[in-house]
Amino acid sequence: MSHVRFEEIDGGAVALRDGDEVARLTGELRDHEVLGRQAWIAAGGDATLFAGLYALAAAPWVADGYVSHQVEVAADDEAGVAAWFALCFGRQQVYAEQPVRPGDASSQALVRPGTPDDAAALGDLIAQLQVGPPVWSGFPPRPPETVRELWEAELDDPDLGVLLAADLDGRPAGLAAFYRVDAEEANLAVAATRPEVRGRGVGLALFEAGMCWAHEHGYRRLSADWRSTNPLASRFWTARGFRPVRYRLHRFVAR
């Protein structure tokens, strides 16, 4: 069996077999105001060598306080997922897609164009849900005035395709935003419903209206993502037809 040698490189490490590179791992170090010091890993090649590469590359990251580690892996890369699971990484985020189809117009009577005032009235619904169990995302809800300001800025973004709101009982009940990724793909980036009106078709109506918009504008794929620890999102979006294409895996290194 040929010998494998691990060598440090700028920002990471490589594995060499008989002088040829057979695997590589690097990390982009980021300082986040809420989540702290993070290392975002990119790895490729022979997955059986990731453990050796990670041991060599990550040691200086951890020494400098970058103890939150993330890596994205294709959902069908069984060897890659297994290699990272063996290193105590867990699945944190699901990235999924589905083909764009004609939306069901019958459920859209509740839906209209959304505004920053709708977002402010609803509050930071996603953070309100995800800050608690079992998600514990770490992002605290933002006050209504901040939410309004953020959406006022977002509505000036040419890549924002459409912001939709749904009404029930005379008040905003939910919100969804669809963005242009490229000529082929649209992204469902934001979707949230007031907890007290769940089960009354608000989320479905917003989704179908967004699918109609994507179909009318010629997109071929619709993407979305959610936390693995969010059971509501996991059930709802898979039931709508989204299928995982990649996962973000995460490890927090205790020192």
How would you sum up this structure, described in words?
- With 255 residues, the protein is α+β, with helices and mostly antiparallel strands.
- The longest helix has 15 residues, at 202-216.
- It is built from seven helices and twelve strands.
- It has two domains: 4-88, 3-Layer(aba) Sandwich (Aminopeptidase); 99-244, Gcn5-related N-acetyltransferase (GNAT) (Aminopeptidase, 3-Layer(aba) Sandwich), CATH 3.40.630.30.
- α3 runs antiparallel to α5 (144-154).
- A hairpin with a 3-residue loop joins β3 (20-32) and β4 (36-45).
- The model has no long low-confidence stretch (mean pLDDT 95).
- A twelve-stranded mixed beta sheet has the order 1-2-3-4-5-12-6-11-10-9-8-7, with helices on both faces.
- The protein is elongated, with a radius of gyration of 21 Å.
Please outline the helices and strands.
Elements: E1 4-9, E2 12-17, E3 20-32, E4 36-45, H1 50-63, E5 68-74, H2 78-86, E6 90-99, E7 111-113, H3 116-122, H4 125-130, H5 144-154, E8 160-168, E9 171-180, E10 185-193, H6 202-216, E11 221-227, H7 231-239, E12 243-252
Parallel strand pairs: 4-5, 10-11
Antiparallel strand pairs: 1-2, 2-3, 3-4, 5-12, 6-11, 6-12, 7-8, 8-9, 9-10
Helix pairs in contact: 3-5
